[in-house]
Amino acid sequence: MILKLKIFLSLIIISNAVFTFSQNLTFSPYSRFGLGEMNSPVFSQIGALGGTHIGFKPDTTAPLFINLANPASISGIRLTTMELGGIARFSEFNNGSEKVKKKTVNFSYACLGFPIKQRAGATFGIMPYSNVGYDMQTATEVTSVGTVTSKYSGEGGINRVFFGLGIMPFKKVLYRFYQSGERDSLFAHKEIKKYKRKKFGKELLSDFSIGGRADYLFGNILQTSSVIYPSSTYYYNTRRYRSTTYSDVTAAFGLQTSFVIDSVGKRELKKKVRIGFGYYLSIPNTIGVRNSSLAYNYSLNGFNEEIAKDTFLYAMNQKNSIRLPLEQGIGMSIKKGDMLNFAVDVSYTNWSQFRYLDNVNTLKNSYRISCGLNFVPEKYAAGSGAYFRRIQYRIGGFYNTGYLELKNTEIANYAATVGVGLPVGLFRAFQVVNISAQFGQMGSVNNGLLQERYVRMIVGFTFNAGGNDRWFQKFRYD
Fold it and tell me: Which domains does the chain have, with CATH numbers?
């Protein structure tokens, strides 16, 4: 009960952190497009693996982590688990002639997961969905007018409150096969090949899991654009504000299954190899929004003060909608004992069907490939030097083509990732401090564009509860 009270109080404190989302988590000028810079629903552990999550199945024994990104894996939660994280980002922007550095630190995620009997698990929590933060200007020479300056700025973002549920509906199929007369009959008649085929099919079915995640999206994005003319008696400057408020629900689904290789020919493997597969789908949902727009002309007096002339657009609290893109992908994982876990993902997002208010869609479909390796020398090591053998070491990377193509240049995003999981505590409760770092690059200095080189660091905390702190479990006493 003490741990449950701590978790409850922690969630109350974390809920106050929502207000810190107003601080920009990005400074990228490319967040001007679409919904801003999108945040994948992964925590520090998965982030260190290049964000590889579709086929990745976390352990079902402590220390246990939550793979929120593919909700099918939630079915493997066997202990009440809490995840908390914060993020620091260091960026350097380069236009080919000068460089500017920016940095920010903020709250990243909070999630609580718990088992439901022996076949299911559930999670709920909060994290950012997208971020907007840019301040830029361009200058254009116009004949008979002079230098016309355009300024663009934006801030805010969208947050998500999520609830996920995963279930293994056929979990006992393989166990029942082992206990059945059919298995004994196949052995008695030496039908080994038939037995292996039966076992393989029932193993895939027994490990099959399906899950869904509902995301409540909320937040506000404020965008401002200005056109400023040189001193002239013929033209007025213009400024436009647009505020978009989000409040609606969308959903994602996932599938996972796996099978075990315990021998090669007649040779038994010392460490069993588990091959896993996964599928992920984020539905192309239409969400409701409210937007307000204001546009007016103005001039500048001798003191550089604005003098408003007339308003030519005024629309407050208008109902509208946004069409989210379809996202889907497949993944595969290979796990050897408790030591090695390798995973790879390929995903696709149909941004060409994205619709944002009355804007003309110029986005292109994007592809993402990622891979990651998790290595722990000895998960349950004891004795001298045991701590360092229990540390989890992670490495990965990803390449994302991105949804932007400006001046015939693809705005791709790619990074190498590393991380560690530092264990704290033994036996009754397991806690892990997860540190991940992403060293990446987005954009290009070619054709007058901007390149961002960044380092993203996420520090996460995982708390696994054991003993009487398991929720939704029935206990038997002798």
Answer: 2-169+208-469 (2.40.160)
Q: Which residue has the higher pLDDT, 217 or 188?
A: 217
Query: What CA–CA distance (Å, rounded) separates 165 from 123?
Result: 7
Nearest 5°: the CA angle 389, 433, 213 is: 115
DSSP characters for 408-468?
TEE--EEEEEEEEEEEE--TT-EEEEEEEEEEEEEE-SGGG--EEEEEEEEEEEEEE--GG
The answer to whether 14 and 110 have CB atoms below 8 angstroms apart is yes
% of the chain beyond a pLDDT of 70: 90
Q: What sign has the CA pseudo-torsion 347, 351, 352, 355?
A: positive
Report the candidate in 418, 431, 411 with the shortest Cα–Cα distance to residue 458: 418
Which pLDDT tens digit goes with each residue over 195-217?
Answer: 888 889 999 999 999 999 999 99
User: What does the buried/exposed string (b/e) look like for 365-379 if buried means 16 or more CB atoms within 10 Å of the residue's CB?
Assistant: ebebbbbbbbebeeb
Q: Could you give phi then psi for residue 143, rounded to 5 degrees?
A: -55, 135
Tens-digit pLDDT profile for residues 351-360: 999 998 877 7
Q: Tell whether the model's pLDDT for residue 24 goes beyond 80.
A: no
Query: Residue 387 CA to chain centroid, in angstroms?
Result: 30
Token pair in block for residue 432: 């892990």
Least confident of 14-18, 133-137, 374-378, 384-388: 14-18
Residues 441-478: tens digit of each pLDDT: 999 998 889 999 999 999 999 998 764 455 555 555 44
**pLDDT for the residue numbered 47:** 96
Token reading at 71 = 């909700």
pLDDT category, 222, cuts 50, 70, 90?
Answer: very high
Q: Which residues contact 368 (CB under 8 A, 6 or more apart)?
A: 329, 345, 346, 347, 348, 349, 398, 399, 400, 401
DSSP H helical segments within 189-295, as ranges? 192-207
User: SS in 3 state form for 395-423?
Assistant: EEEEEECCCCEECCEECCEEEEEEEEEEE
The 3-state secondary structure of 150-203, one letter per residue:
EEEEEEEEEEEEEEEEEECCCCCHHHHHHHCHHHHHHHHCCCHHHHHHHHHHHH
Residue 93 DSSP label: E
CA distance 337 to 354: 43
Asked whether 212 and 156 are in contact (CB, 8 A), the reply is no
